[in-house]
Specification:
Number of strands: 0
Largest sheet: none
Helix content: over 70%
Structural class: mainly alpha
Mean pLDDT: 83
Strand content: under 5%
Length: 56
């Protein structure tokens, strides 16, 4: 019974590490996308009224 419990704990520990690394990678991607959107919004805010946007 102890062997089964130890094996289950090892499996769970491995899954947790994998989840943490996937979460960190997703968080990094979201922050990069957020920075890009913020930069685009700042650029748009500086644009003169009536000026045509070149992004589309």
């Amino acid at each position: 019974m102890r062997l089964v419990a130890c094996i289950l704990l090892l499996i769970l520990a491995g899954c947790q590490k994998d989840f943490d690394s996937q979460y960190a990678e997703t968080e990094r991607k979201v922050k990069a996308a957020e920075a890009k959107i913020d930069a685009e919004m700042a650029k748009e805010a500086k644009r003169e009224p009536g000026e045509v946007s070149k992004s589309n």
